[in-house]
Design brief:
By secondary structure, this protein is an alpha/beta fold. Helices cover about 35% and strands about 20% of the residues. Helix 3 packs parallel to helix 4.
Length: about 250
């Protein structure tokens, strides 16, 4: 096993890290969990409640994460306990989000061929003036909303939850002493959260950093860091495969 005996840092929340941690252990690695983000309900739930209540006017409701499903689908079920209004379709940015939707009994009508917001923008079947409701983090990338707007959609960008980017400095320091074999990042927020815990991000220069996708990899740039590997496909399984390739 290529990862046998290697210490791999996982920056996901403890609640979301299970599949990655299990995959690492199955490969003989030692996962080191340093949660670098956490999620909270929106400070003002009114926009989410109103978006769910007015969903009959939408053509699409789009989810970009499993966390968005957790908070957003609960609001929809409260507004529409007997099921979605006729004509409303559901899109997921990738397979992980689609799985989260199916797990709560939600339909999945569209998943782009690649788990990237930019690909979803290009491929989502739209007619002019279709209303698209985005249920996502309050710090979601604006490119998704602006891209759909440019295609003629009537975009309602709704904060379904808040993403808090922070890690425990002591846990981060312990993970880096001794230096781990790799650090994994599953979103730009995990990058920012982990870096905020470090007094000197340059300490990561010689540590292989592995990103779940190109947007996450790009989040390393402001700190002068680069990803040693980027998962393809942009899933936990792809991330594990990228680690295998890195150390093979």
């Amino acid at each position: 096993m290529t990862l046998a005996g290697r210490r791999i840092v996982v920056t996901r929340t403890e609640e979301q890290a299970g599949s990655l941690v299990d995959g690492l252990r199955q490969r003989g690695a030692t996962p080191v969990l340093v949660p670098s983000i956490r999620f909270e309900p929106p400070e003002d739930p009114t926009p989410l409640i109103e978006a769910a209540r007015d969903l009959a006017e939408a053509a699409w409701v789009v989810f970009t994460s499993a966390t968005g499903v957790l908070y957003g689908w609960a609001a929809i079920q409260q507004a529409w306990p007997d099921g979605l209004p006729d004509g409303v379709r559901v899109a997921a940015v990738g397979s992980g989000t689609a799985d989260a939707l199916r797990a709560v009994g939600a339909p999945v009508d569209f998943v782009p061929h690649e788990a990237l917001g930019d690909v979803l923008v290009e491929e989502l079947p739209l007619s002019k003036d279709d209303r698209v409701v985005l249920l996502r983090s309050h710090i979601g990338r604006e490119a998704l909303a602006t891209g759909l707007d440019a295609r003629g959609a009537d975009v309602r960008d709704v904060p379904a939850y808040r993403t808090i980017t922070e890690a425990d400095p002591e846990a981060a320091a312990a993970a880096l002493d001794p230096a781990p074999d790799a650090i994994t990042f599953t979103s730009p927020s995990t990058v920012r959260g982990f870096l905020t815990a470090l007094s000197n991000p340059a300490r990561l220069t010689d540590v292989p950093l592995v990103a779940i996708g190109p947007v996450t990899a790009a989040a390393l740039d402001p700190a002068g860091l680069r990803a040693a590997a980027v998962a393809d496909p942009h899933t936990v399984s792809g991330l594990l495969d990228a680690l295998d390739r890195l150390f093979s």
